[in-house]
Amino acid sequence: MLIIQTCDPFRYFPLFAITQRTAAVYAERNGHQYEAFVGICRGHRPWHATYNRILLLKQLITRGARGWVLYLDADSYITDLRFDMQNYLGGRMDCSFIFAPAVPNAKPWQVNAGIFFANLSNDKCLRVCEQWYADFMTRVSDETLANNKGSFDIYPDDQQLIQSIIEGSDAEIQNSIYVDQDQTFNYEGGKFARQVIRAHFTSFDARLESAQSEIGEILTNSRDELTGSL
């Protein structure tokens, strides 16, 4: 499995520098690949990096990557460094994607794009990723990006694009998408991975402090577990 994570080099980099440690440690300990991209693939403002995931998936497909990809936002971190990924994915090999719901009582297409799994060995996943890229390139124009001055007020964003695609897809694609309702990953309650989302904090500094505290504890406990097993 490949884990990918991305952020802009300005606004979110301090948070990414904290959260990415869990992804790197998890990948190294469990034999997964980890790739991180810092930059803005298209656009110029820090929040335009929210679209990076679309272009990174496109690049992976173009270079022939296959298998499972776990995408993590810059504000996402892994909480359980011993999580049995083989067991989790083993029964879902026919799925194109694994998402968590974006809101309580979500409809099947209302998915959270902050943390998700994409199965690049599944043709339906490839079709959705290609459509995601095509919609981004056509529905979000260069002019829109150039004129966008307010933080995160651009429409449609990456999540709205993927939700629109899923909602409008045929039953074959919709039925191939698994929405995890068990809080395995999602927002602050994920058992495997969580997000330090803006809506839950009064300031960016508060997000940094929370992430630093929780991730420091996770890594410390993990080191203690390793020491105790030697």
- Percentage of residues in DSSP E strands: 15-25%
> What's the architecture, going by CATH?
Alpha-Beta Complex
Apparent shape: globular
Q: Low-confidence stretches at least 5 residues in length (pLDDT < 50)?
A: none
Measured distance between first and last alpha carbons? 27 Å
What keyword list fits this structure?
230 residues; alpha/beta; two-stranded antiparallel ribbon
How is this structure best described in words?
α1 (13-30) runs parallel beside α8, α2 packs across α4 (123-139) and α4 (123-139) packs across α6. The protein is an alpha/beta fold. It has helices at residues 13-30, 52-62, 85-90, 123-139, 142-147, 158-168, 171-176, 204-229, and strands spanning 2-7, 33-38, 68-72, 76-78, 97-101, 111-119, 177-179, 193-195.
Task: List strands and helices in order, with pairings.
Layout: E1 2-7, H1 13-30, E2 33-38, H2 52-62, E3 68-72, E4 76-78, H3 85-90, E5 97-101, E6 111-119, H4 123-139, H5 142-147, H6 158-168, H7 171-176, E7 177-179, E8 193-195, H8 204-229
Parallel strand pairs: 1-2, 1-3, 5-7
Antiparallel strand pairs: 3-6, 4-8, 5-6
Helix pairs in contact: 1-8, 2-4, 4-6
What's the short story on this structure?
By secondary structure, the chain is an alpha/beta fold. It is built from 8 helices and 8 strands.
